[in-house]
Amino acid sequence: MNLTRTAIKSIARAFSKDEDGATAIEYGLFAALVGAVIVATVASLGQETNKGFQAMETALKEQNSSS
């Protein structure tokens, strides 16, 4: 019984000192943040690009109707 308690304490101490899991979580959170920034940037650029194409379409239609 005493050997089991000692083994459990030893495993618990090793587990509490192990930082690999915390590092993996930090990397996961960082990757999620980078992904969110990419999505926001693409969405913003997409709207601006769409506005540019609409302006070109309008200008071409006006040019064709005045010809």
From TrEMBL:
Segments crossing the lipid bilayer: 27-46
Keywords, comma-separated and alphabetical: Membrane, Transmembrane, Transmembrane helix
Record bears the keyword Transmembrane helix: yes
Pfam families: Flp_Fap
InterPro entries, sorted: Flp_Fap (IPR007047)
Protein name as annotated: Pilus assembly protein Flp/PilA
